[in-house]
Amino acid sequence: MYRNLIKFATVLTFGIVVLGAFVRLSDAGLGCPDWPGCYGHVTVPDEAHELAAAQAKYPNQPVEVRKGWIEMIHRYFASALGLVIIAIAVMSWRRRAEIRSVGLPFFLVGLVLFQGLLGMWTVTLRLYPAVVTAHLIGGMTTLACLMWLLMRQYRLASPNRNKRFEQLKRPAQLALIVIAAQIVLGGWVSTNYAALACTDFPKCHGTWAPAADYANGFYPWRDLGRSASGELLQQDALTAIHWMHRIGALATLLVVGYLCIRLLLNDRFKRYGLLLCCALALQLMLGIANILFSLPLSLAVAHNAGAALLLAILVALNYRLHNKN
Q1: Is the pLDDT assigned to residue 197 strictly greater than 70?
Q2: What is the pTM of this model?
Q3: Does residue 71 have an active-site annotation?
């Protein structure tokens, strides 16, 4: 039951990460202007008198029932995940004599509670980019931790730790770091609505060196659409955010691609190599397609799912390389 709960939590977290991307990309992040309810209700108000009362309470924001439901469904699933993770922590404590460590389950409890706070601040601070990006990072971190915890539950055959095996450790670690950094950059692109700051590919605005304001683009403590000085954020700042993500994509291709080749040449890890190569290729194609087709919602959400999949694969691989069962 303990293992099955962890499996369920891992799959649920992946779904919540994808659903969170859908909330963000469909502009439903403020579908409910309050927290944890929606216009003071546990569900989205849809009766005429409820809608009138909601509009009177928030006169500057039109009531959009569809967006409200998108946001509330995300909250329901996130709340369910919190309960499942608490159950995992309780079970790990009760079985602490058998389980290697209870530290990670209890860390996950703290992380999911902090995620709840970030979700609240996302609404109350009205999509403050640093908070929304931190919320995305928290979701991905939860997924990575659950994947690590899940791998612990399996007694995998110990591979022959020869020189070729040991030489895979550093590339795998580097690939995980690069993917994590690229996820952060992608989150910053999304939360600043900079995905279409460059609409051509592979160049940006017809050049390999577009005019870019990196200082304002990557200044974290600013309101959405505003510069560090409080003025409207200019196109050059959005270009800087987008272009840096593309540079990160090139670094990801080189580092993760190199790891793919190394894995494919190793008989014991050929399956990991094939899976990682397919996930990387799909993610790159989705990223390019988002630019060429002007960010259709389905492709944009799939691109977020691809990032989560790459992260999960690399966490599992690093566990396999660094732990003896």
Answers
A1: yes
A2: 0.94
A3: yes
